[in-house]
Amino acid sequence: MSTGTTDYYALLGVERGATESEIKKAFRRKARECHPDVCKDGDAEERFKAVNEAYDVLSDPAKREMYDRYGTVDPRMGAGAGPDLGDLFGGGFGMDDLFSAFFGGMAGGAGARRARTEGRDMAVQMVITLEDAAMGVTKEVAVNRLVECEECDATGSADGTGTSTCPICNGSGQRRSERRTILGTMQTLSPCDGCGATGSVVATPCPECAGQGRVPDRDHVEIEIPAGIEDGMQIRVPGRGEAGVRGAAAGDLLVTVRIAPHEFLHREGADLHARMSLTITEAALGASVEAPGLESDVTLDVPPGTQYGDTLRVRGAGMPRLRGSGRGDLIVHASIDIPAKLTKRQRELLGELAETFGDTARPTPLDRLKDWLSG
């Protein structure tokens, strides 16, 4: 993310008070102008990434407000928000056969194959708290993706006439060419540039989507997170990935759920682990204490004679099990809090206690020397 030296409004060619609709239209226009599959300038890729970054900030109300106020955006705001359009239209999704088709024609002389019309799956990451994972929640994630064009109802046609078979390749999406070589006549297959290797053409392309029936946009998707989900698990949301070409099937959205570290709880499967300090009297005599749990404090029965490192288990106070019923346990690891300073009376009482245990003070080297001389 930029550090504030770039004027995002100037990049998109809009005023600072531009509406959401104006920003979206400006972005689409700029994206078409500088996409590397269309623009042959040496800096086309960098310009396209900059335009995408500008749209990513100005299309998000929270990011735009921070940018307007401070001239920069906290990079932590983007965590878990999914790939930007630089990834969507770049190496992660194949520039040679995805966005090149959006602009008509295949890029870079790719091998002879028909262009994909179905939308691709997309992957994003979402960070939740341990409490969210325990209760189960509905979260919203913003995804920059290709969506169905509303102007032409995803048909790609401006006048509703629809598509027809490409007259150049007869619907195959490929062109066959011959050339003479010293080894004889060689036949090669190449993507048809008349239909963008799709096999069909639109007589009157929609000006908003260039006949593809889909446009880049920012989508907000609600994710249902089940109780008991574990770190790294994926949730599939059907149909919320990349939209297909001219109404073809959309891909799915794959959401990887990451669980943020908790302040004092550590998870192992369905069990939760915590550390708790006990006073010397609680450990020696036993006590009923309140231990910090996930949703609320739990009552912990400390048996007399508890030692440092002993574990105390509270049944059913852990995480819900994602598969199956019931919950795990809360396992408390005991530590003993030894006071660093004692009052005079406390020292006297501990001294009396030491005598009852038969404890004696360890002799100093001088004491041992006196005992040796007297012996």
Descriptive key words:
Helix Hairpins, 3 domains, four-stranded mixed β-sheet, 10 helices, HSP40/DNAj peptide-binding domain, 375 residues, 23% helix, three-stranded mixed β-sheet
Write up what this structure looks like.
The chain is an alpha+beta fold. The chain folds into 3 domains: 1-75, DnaJ domain (Helix Hairpins), CATH 1.10.287.110; 79-259, Sandwich (HSP40/DNAj peptide-binding domain), CATH 2.60.260.20; 266-356, Urease metallochaperone UreE, N-terminal domain (HSP40/DNAj peptide-binding domain, Sandwich). The chain is built from 10 helices and 15 strands. The chain has helices spanning 8-12, 20-34, 44-58, 61-70, 85-88, 99-102, 130-135, 280-285, 344-356, 365-374; strands at 122-128, 137-148, 163-165, 174-181, 184-191, 200-202, 214-225, 234-237, 253-259, 266-268, 271-279, 287-291, 298-302, 311-314, 330-337. It has a 4-stranded mixed β-sheet with strand order 10-11-15-14. Strands 1-9-8 form a 3-stranded mixed β-sheet. A two-stranded antiparallel sheet has the order 2-7. A hairpin with a 2-residue loop joins strand 10 (266-268) and strand 11. Helix 2 runs antiparallel to helix 3.
Protein topology:
Elements: H1 8-12, H2 20-34, H3 44-58, H4 61-70, H5 85-88, H6 99-102, E1 122-128, H7 130-135, E2 137-148, E3 163-165, E4 174-181, E5 184-191, E6 200-202, E7 214-225, E8 234-237, E9 253-259, E10 266-268, E11 271-279, H8 280-285, E12 287-291, E13 298-302, E14 311-314, E15 330-337, H9 344-356, H10 365-374
Parallel strand pairs: 1-9, 11-15
Antiparallel strand pairs: 2-7, 3-6, 4-5, 8-9, 10-11, 12-13, 14-15
Helix pairs in contact: 2-3
